[in-house]
Write a structure and sequence with these properties.
Blueprint: E1 13-14, E2 19-20, H1 24-38, E3 42-52, E4 59-64, E5 69-74, H2 76-79, E6 91-101, E7 106-116, H3 121-135, E8 153-158, H4 163-175, E9 180-185, H5 193-207, E10 212-217, H6 231-239, E11 244-248, H7 256-260, E12 263-264, H8 268-275, H9 279-314, H10 318-361, H11 363-368, E13 373-377, E14 381-382, E15 394-398, E16 403-407
Parallel strand pairs: 5-7, 8-9, 8-10, 10-11, 11-12
Antiparallel strand pairs: 1-2, 3-4, 3-6, 4-5, 6-7, 13-14, 13-15, 15-16
Helix pairs in contact: 4-8, 5-6
């Protein structure tokens, strides 16, 4: 409720008229004080829009329904306590107080707590983180590593007060009592449990010599198991150089740690059995492998025997096959000689034809028909015109057979 201002209150005066007035700042402070005094903290239902987070980490948004809206702010300190991340379009219940942001005169809802409607805050936080980490590849099957066979040293990250640790130690001791177990006790629920679990995983990695790590706890509610859904634990598992088995709760319980780990066990007891198999199981597996090997060898021997018999049938008389091949070789030799002689004859015919053509074009063939070639001496050029000669010039005349040097006495 907004309080009315009475005339007898001590307000500043303005001029001779004696009117009372407020500055804008004083008015806003008056409204703010009235709102905070008259309206208690309350739950408000609405839908988030215009959600934004500046570098300060505060949440600014509009809370609206189908008829109205109000500006809202959730400061960083309160926002870090939320298990989920608010988003545009999300229906929520906000708990807070109404006040006025006096600098701008804006009516605002100052939110101290928030719950999603339609599904629990923890479930929503689980799905949001699962989607985020999956998109970054933390759940990729190709990055998951196999567990070492009969590890020498097993690390365990769990509470040192729970039955889960007792069950795991019993299994490991019964199967291979000579194996080493390194226990890194942590809180498995409550404030700070996630950070402790992440630090323990890092400690066992730094310790060195640890072949496999079991991270887990016994069953409980989703709130009890929530530490294994925290991002800090997921990233510690992802960063581990040692293969990790997640063993949280019962078989029906799934956590973010299960998706990131190299192997997921339904219970802590099953995790110990997974890491350290029974000797009797190994003996049985060895016997089965031996039987499979013997059957494979028998089958291989049978196949080789059949192949040998087939070859033996085809090579019953090696001499016969040799004779057949020799006869075939003779036939091929005769055919090759025939083909070669035919080819040689065709080449000779072609050569004779080309030789005839060349002979017809040769200057010597012309000389054979009674013609001669005259060269003027000493220039050695062929005389084609009598005008190129003078009386007394020396010439050389080439005949079809021989040549003669002459002197020109007369020309026409």
């Amino acid at each position: 409720m907004v309080r009315a201002v009475h005339q007898d209150e001590d307000l500043p005066l303005l001029g001779a008229a004696g009117r009372r007035f407020l500055t804008v700042s004083e008015l806003n402070e008056l409204i703010k004080g009235t709102l905070e005094a008259e309206i208690d903290a309350l739950w408000v239902q609405g839908e988030i829009s215009n959600f934004r987070v500046p570098p300060s980490g505060h949440y600014y948004f509009t809370l609206k329904d189908n008829k109205s809206q109000i500006s809202a702010v959730m400061f960083r300190r309160q926002g870090t306590r939320l298990r989920f991340t608010p988003e545009n379009g999300m229906a929520v219940l906000c708990f807070g107080r109404v006040s006025l942001y006096a600098v701008r005169g804006d009516l605002q809802l100052y939110v101290d707590d928030m719950e999603p409607q339609g599904q629990g805050a923890l479930y929503l936080a689980f799905e949001q983180l699962k989607t985020k980490l999956a998109s970054e590849g933390l759940f990729a099957p190709e990055r998951k590593r196999p567990l070492p066979f009969l590890p020498e040293t097993i690390g365990i990250v769990t509470s040192d007060r729970g039955a889960a640790l007792h069950d795991m130690l019993r299994i490991l001791g019964d199967r291979y009592a000579d194996r080493h177990v390194v226990i890194r006790p942590v809180k498995v629920q409550g404030e700070g449990a996630g950070r402790e679990i992440a630090a323990a995983i890092a400690d066992l990695n730094r310790l060195g010599g640890v072949d496999a790590i079991i991270v887990g706890r016994g069953g409980g509610s989703i709130e009890d198991l929530w530490a294994f859904n925290e991002e800090v634990v997921a990233r510690a598992i992802f960063a581990s150089a040692v293969p990790i088995v997640s063993a949280v709760g019962h078989e029906i319980d799934f956590t973010i740690a299960d998706f990131v780990a190299d192997r997921r066990a339904p219970t802590p007891t099953a995790a110990a059995e997974m890491v350290m198999p029974r000797k009797s199981d190994l003996t049985e597996q060895l016997g089965m492998a031996e039987d499979q090997l013997l059957r494979a060898l028998e089958l291989k021997l049978q196949n080789l025997t059949e192949a040998y018999r087939g070859l033996a049938r085809r090579l019953a008389d090696p001499g016969r096959k040799l004779r057949e091949n020799q006869q075939r070789l003779d036939e091929l030799s005769v055919d090759l000689v025939r083909r070669f002689q035919d080819r040689l004859r065709r080449l000779k015919d072609q050569l004779a034809h080309q030789t005839g053509r060349l002979s017809a074009l040769s200057p010597l063939a012309v000389l054979e028909r009674g013609y001669s070639i005259t060269h003027k001496l000493p220039e050695e050029f062929i005389v084609k015109d009598a005008a190129a000669l003078a009386d007394g010039d020396r010439v050389r005349i080439t005949f079809a057979a021989g040549r003669a040097v002459c002197r020109v006495e007369e020309k026409e």
